[in-house]
Amino acid sequence: TVQGDRATHVNTGVFGACCVAIWGSTDVFIYNVTAKDSYTDGFWILYNDAVAPYAESRNVHLINCTADNNYRNGASVIGCIGGSIVGGRYINSNGTAPQDGIDVEPNANNGSGGPSTVSNFVVQGVHAYGNSTTGIEVYGAGTVEYVDLIENFCYDNGAQGIVYRSASNGSVDTNTVYDNAANGISAYSVTNTAFNNNITSKNVQAGIIIQNPQNALTQDLVIDGNISNENGTGILVSGLTNQIANVVVSNNEIFS
To answer: Which end of the chain is more exposed for a tag (fewer CB within 10 A), N or C?
Structure first.
């Protein structure tokens, strides 16, 4: 167990006080570590920012780890090519935004004006619950592609269960998402991605919502084989703000 100092931390202008931080590293495997009470994140996977352009970490894996009661996120993935978060719990994040269980969010600037990257990354079999906002969030402020969310359990979060945003060529498959205060699975500005075989239950808003509130692309999506049970809306495809194109919705079951 690595325990942070959020209860006594006084230097409120400084971030980076993570329990476990992996900077620009290759072939790292972390098993069965609990990261709790950090003033920022429990786990941090990012690039080496010593010399621009920054080199992303590669082949980094968190396996059966736990993040609990961290001030920002349970785990943040900011710059990584190849890797995974498998098993474990990412819970009770609270304090300052984003307040997610897991946040896959590369930066818009890699030190030389371009974006950092997260690609070929899998989040599988984790439990993400009790977080102030989202259980698992994928947000491509930088470049996100080939990121898969598989067989996760996201429940009792203060906003969404899963957010998949500004990303491409990924999948959200066989997740169980329930009792979240907003949408179960929310996707926007997404291209060439499949949302298949998920179970969404008793989320206050939609079980699955596909939208495009930004002036960006939301297109070439498949929504297949999902089960929606007692959500505010079962499946919602909303192009009210900007156009959504080439969405196939098939073989889903929706129960009121």
So the answer is: C
pTM for the complete prediction?
Answer: 0.96
- The total of other beta-carbon atoms located within 10 Å of residue 174's CB is 17
pLDDT, averaged per 10 consecutive residues of the chain (256 residues), comes to: 91 75 96 96 93 92 98 96 98 96 92 89 98 97 92 98 96 98 96 98 98 86 98 93 90 95
Of 206, 188, 208, nearest to 198 by C-alpha is 208
Q: What is the rounded distance in angstroms from the CA atom of residue 128 to the CA atom of residue 105?
A: 17
Distance CA 210, CA 223 (A): 10
For 184, counting Cβ atoms within 10 Å of its Cβ (0-12 exposed, 13-18 middle, 19+ buried), the class is buried
